[in-house]
Amino acid sequence: MEIMTDQGFRKTVKYLRAIIIISLIGMICMLILFLGILGYARILGAPPLAVSQSTLFFADDGTLMGESNSGQKRYWVGLKDISPDLVNATVSIEDKNFYEHHGFDYKRIAGAVIADIQAFAKVQGASTITQQYARNLFLEHDKTWKRKLTEAFYTIRLEMNYSKQEILEGYINTIYYGNGAYGVEAASQYYFGKKAADLTLAEASMLAGIPKGPGIYSPLASMEKAKSRQAIILQSMVKNRYISKKDAQTAANQQLTLVGVHTTQKVKVAPYFQDAVKNALKNQLHLDDRTIALGGLKVFTTLNLKQQKAAESQVNQYVASTSDIQVGLVAMDPKNGYVRAMVGGRDYEKSPFNRAVQAVRQPGSTIKPLLYYAALEQGFTPASTMRSEFTTFHFDDGQADYTPHNFNNKYADGEVTLAQALAVSDNIFAVKTHLFLGEETLIGTAKKFGLSTKMAKVPSLALGTSGVRVIEMAGAYSLLANGGKRVTPTLITRVEDYNGNVIFEKENTAKKVLDPAKAFVMTQMLTGIFDSKLNGYAKVTGSTIIKNITRPYAGKSGSTETDSWMIGYSPQLVTAVWAGYDIGKPIELTAEKTYAKNIWANFMEEALQGKPVKAFKPPKEGVVGVYVNPANGKLATKDCPVRRFTYFVAGTEPTEYCTDHLKNTDESKKKKQEHKKVPWYKKIMPWG
Asked: Where are the transmembrane segments (predicted)?
């Protein structure tokens, strides 16, 4: 019997030793596994915290004007820009030991296990804020063991690489508050119409209760359940010493005003411009579509809301509602190329095709300033003359004969100056100049002015028969307006990522590509379309809108059978307007032929209202201004009936005085002498 007992004892000791050894081995394995997990987590480093967020678009004054629309509202704000009451309420109800644990609250886990065992069901959650954040960032919300293990691993990585403040900020910016609102900023705007920084204790405690069940505890779903949940949160805040009982009671009794609207959904400012901005983000900054739509970018643009409103109102005012005419408009600051207003069509919902950026249309006579700038480079002056008469051009190289026509087939049938030819838009003068310079010259000049569309090497190019884009024409005229500096039409000044890091910032560099003196002479010639002193065999082309303008402008109108244009500028603003049918149908109604000019003139006046009236300032050197007779370009005398102050490139100003009216004066004096009354006696005695 004793032997058996001794054997049993030895057997028991053997089993205990085995259990201890196995346990130690197991513990060592667990420790190795744990250390391996920690090491692997350390090697992998910090997991990225980027989450889907709405990209926001801002006008030039910082006003939010639009956002990417993915059906969800996601904004990111720093912890300092969130109400402390909301932060405290969230920690208090979701994870009161958040600042003490390292991602896992073991006491809470144990308590949840016991509660679940007692209830024979899962009645209590034990996920910490870090665990929930890991789930929101990287995982699906299924309940498999694989998901739970992966969640735990991401939790370790988050705690190892980020501070508690960074984790809490990320969590509050990613949790779902219902009704498409992700993060506290979107939720605050939706439920209360205010920023998260401005939430009261009552509002913060109400919001903090929604994530537990957005369809149950949202005040818009059930105010009763929302208030009940709010009361629990306020009690937890008192218990965890964030607020006093009095504060809790006051907040619980406070009446809340609910909005229930995503305010930015209503924002549809300048939809064509916003589309152009998205294209620029993709094609110029090389961002992918997902980053543009859901990268949480902040895109700061050049759009001026006042000028945009003016552009849209003028289009609506002047284009008849019954007309199918479309309009493209671009207004930009000539000093830096910033696009201040853009109209791509009359109704974005019906047609998102952007005629200001995408359409390629014939510019007509608006191409002539580029041609005549090239002529100035080749020695032409505003006083250079050519005959304006019905002309058929014959070519020796096999080209077909070409017979351009002036508007209404009106010709001077005599010499006209370059300044007058431009003001009345004489086509014969333009084609002669084009052929004299060589057809390649205008093609090269167009490229110098920033036009990228292909130009045909034909005589009619001088009359704008090769298509261009509205935005590029606005850019081309900006070179004249700013004294010869190349500025690229610009839509975006700065782009920030969701963390506020600047990933793009526009550098204001303008390269000089034109001679300032010649650019100014060209500008001064373009003021002629509004100057009746240059009326000749036809009126200046801006005569119909002179009464609508109150400040100095330079500009040029243009028309083809299917296109109507007006492009012009003040020192502060360049605007290009095109009107026509999308299908290239001829513009036949007289009213439709006036749309571009009227929109341009009235837009410029409204857009510049309140700004100082500025004249075009000549460069400090390189130009000379003299009075000339606009009919012949010679220096005017006091006897000339019309005298116009005209600028020339220094050294090219006329030196010959006009004698036409001096001659007329001498003849009139002679006639007066001949018809002078002769005394009666002289008739009888002529020798007396």
From this structure: 20-41
